[in-house]
Design brief:
heterodimer; A: about 230 residues; mainly alpha; Arp2/3 complex 21 kDa subunit ARPC3; two-stranded antiparallel sheet; 7 helices; 2 strands; about 0% strand; globular; B: about 120 residues
Chain lengths: ~230, ~120
């Protein structure tokens, strides 16, 4: 899901940076107001966790690879705004040091994986965890949240890629950037994420929440209460 | 604090087993992730290299492309899995360090404000 350099035309990647800038600013302000010093190390831990979990490439038999992002698990720990910042750190390091995702596309990749994923997935988790309030229920809600978040991110990624032939096609009919239209990009991206990659994300998120709750980890306990601290 | 130590240990374990994410796709001979092909791969798929893509694809030369040591992108799998683990630890250090600095910056001013 890491869009490389050269896939998005300047209007798209500049717009994505422009969209991210205020979101980063809001995230920083929210955390400055609400993150307690005691929970601050979770920001570092979740950035490193996100980096690592994306190294576990999952093969889709006969085709491509994908990976989990951990965005919803992180949102459960440090809130969706905290997830936005910690996943941004991971994506920036991946692009700068390891060439995973483009430099021009950092804004776009952050929009998809650091914004869309934690917010949509966390919303799904919050909604479901009210209905499923048992310990196992919370883990199931987290797993479904992970699946929802990853798929929303895959969808917005597909939209960005599929938009390119509409914006940038030469007079000779050749694409200038990502060549596949919506009709190809959306099914291709969603196939793997709705099935295998989404299931992996769901399993990781659900199992992690189950065991973190069982061990009374600070990751899953009192985030809501401390979020309200002035 | 013991809790955080356990979480860090969990991350170290993840880093040590990270080559799983390198080996399994290799064994199953799956290609790149969808939409993450190199310019050469695109050329094979659609018959030409999109002009704008060709211009910007190398906008940045990452020091360790594909989580491999420089010049070892095509080294044997066993060598690459060592670089992969090294990359994982570099990632922990860089992301953990970045996250730590950010968290300090965000929580640091509060004491002064309230005083």
């Amino acid at each position: 899901m890491h869009i490389p350099d050269g896939y998005l035309g300047p209007p798209t990647y500049l717009a994505a940076y422009a969209a991210c800038a205020p979101l980063w600013a809001v995230a920083a302000r929210r955390l400055r107001e609400r993150l307690s010093a005691r929970r601050a190390p979770l920001l570092a831990i979740s950035a490193a966790f996100s980096f690592l979990v994306m190294m576990f490439n999952v093969p889709l038999p006969g085709g491509t690879t994908g990976h989990a992002v951990g965005g919803v698990l992180i949102a459960i720990g440090v809130g969706p705004w905290g997830a936005m910042l910690s996943i941004t750190i991971a994506l920036a390091i991946q692009a700068l040091l390891f060439g995973d995702g483009g430099i021009t596309a950092i804004g776009a990749n952050c929009l998809n994986m650091a914004f869309v994923m934690p917010f949509t997935g966390y919303a799904a988790y919050s909604l479901l965890s009210r209905l499923l309030s048992s310990e196992k229920g919370k883990a199931v809600a987290a797993g479904i949240g992970g699946w929802v978040g990853l798929n929303c991110a895959a969808f917005t990624t597909a939209l960005m890629l599929g938009l390119q032939p509409l914006l940038h096609t030469g007079t000779d009919g050749r694409a200038l950037y990502a060549p596949y239209p919506f009709s190809v990009a959306i099914p291709a991206m969603m196939l793997g994420h709705l099935t295998l990659f989404g299931m992996v994300e769901a399993l990781i998120t659900g199992l992690a929440v189950y065991f973190l709750r069982r061990s009374q980890s600070a990751w899953v306990f009192q985030p809501a209460a401390e979020e309200r601290e002035p | 604090m013991r809790d955080y130590r356990r979480l860090w240990i969990g991350l170290v374990i993840l880093a040590l087993v990270s080559p799983i994410g390198l080996y399994i796709p290799e064994i199953m001979r799956t290609g790149s992730a969808w939409g993450e092909w190199g310019v050469d791969e695109i050329k094979q798929m659609i018959g030409y290299a999109p002009a704008g893509m060709e211009r910007t694809a190398d906008a940045w030369k990452a020091p360790m492309p594909d989580y491999a040591l420089p010049g070892q992108e095509d080294a044997p799998l066993s060598r690459r899995s060592l670089s992969y683990v090294l990359s994982a630890f570099l990632g922990i250090a860089a992301c953990g360090g970045g996250g730590y600095l950010l968290a300090r910056w965000l929580t640091g001013h509060r004491g002064k404000h309230q005083a």
